[in-house]
Specification:
The chain is α/β, with parallel strands linked by helices. An eight-stranded mixed beta sheet has the order 1-2-4-3-5-6-7-8, with helices on both faces. Strand 5, helix 4 and strand 6 (about 145-150) form a beta-alpha-beta unit. It has one domain: Rossmann fold (3-Layer(aba) Sandwich). It has helices at about 45-60, 80-90, 105-120, 135-140, 160-165, 170-185, 200-210, 250-265, and strands spanning about 15, 25-30, 35-40, 60-65, 125-130, 145-150, 190-195, 215-220.
Length: about 270
């Protein structure tokens, strides 16, 4: 069996990228075709996140997988999840309680999206956020060519008050930019969640529906269809709680995500 160091992801090229106007960060790259930025969930680029990014690349896309939190290829455990979340909470790059503004790290992600579009071309860029980074994909529609944002179990702001349960972790300017991309560039938004997920409450998707109407496509799955062997609660639709078998609702959600990217980016 191959020994994987903390800085290696099988099948991906590792580079230190410094998009114009942004500092250098580690980004893992795989595939060819239109660009898709895949943002990790807590606790980081786990084997399941790497597997999902591989599926996106194999579907005909150039995947850019930035190292944002945690240690690459470290398994998800209660300890690793708690450590990553604690670091995010005290980091200046994340604002975990902000309802009406995004996290500072989004500025760097926009620069990465612009860099990826320059390298790959096409009508625009896809952005997939999960958990902590879920709503980053929405905020990236400002000042970046993102026309295919996927919000999988978007968990910010932390839902500790009624107002934050419906918060989108995006500023008025970012929401306005999303509407502009929808109206003038053919952008659409895809969201995924389990229906009993306490970290991504139903009020958040209700707000997205109210804000974007038919341009927002929601996939809300029964929590009972999540992988029973993964850590509860049912949360990570495309990774940890995916049952990757034909006929499974989570597999259908994965297939729809890939189809959404094709519709938006392979025109």
């Amino acid at each position: 069996m191959q020994t994987i160091t903390a800085q290696e992801i099988p099948g991906f090229e590792r580079a230190e990228l410094a998009p114009v106007g942004a500092p250098a960060r580690t980004v893992y790259r795989r595939g060819s075709g239109p660009a898709v930025v895949v943002m990790t969930e807590v606790p980081g680029i786990t084997p399941q996140v790497a597997r999902f990014a591989t599926r996106v690349a194999d579907a005909g896309f150039s995947v850019y997988l930035p190292q944002l939190i945690g240690t690459p290829m470290q398994p998800l455990t209660p300890v690793t999840a708690a450590r990553s979340m604690a670091r995010a909470c005290i980091s200046r790059e994340f604002r975990v309680l902000a309802s009406n503004q995004s996290s500072p790290i989004v500025d760097w992600l926009r620069a990465l999206a612009r860099h990826a579009h320059t390298e790959c071309g096409g009508p625009g860029v896809g952005a997939i956020g999960m958990c902590l980074t879920g709503n980053f994909a929405l905020a990236m529609m400002l000042d970046a060519p993102v026309i295919a944002p996927v919000l999988s179990q978007p968990s910010l702001p932390v839902a500790i008050t009624p107002a934050r349960r419906s918060g989108l972790h995006a500023s008025p300017a970012e929401l306005k930019a999303a509407h502009d991309k929808i109206d003038h560039h053919g952008a659409r938004i895809l969201g995924l969640r389990f229906n009993e997920d306490p970290m991504c409450p139903p009020q958040r998707f209700a707000r997205l529906r109210a804000e974007f109407g038919d341009a927002f496509e929601a996939i809300e799955l029964p929590s009972s269809c999540a992988n029973p062997d993964a850590l509860p609660p049912a949360h990570s639709v495309l990774t940890t709680h995916l049952i990757d078998a034909a006929g499974e609702p989570t597999r259908a959600a994965l297939d729809r995500t890939l189809a959404f990217l094709r519709e938006q980016l392979q025109r």
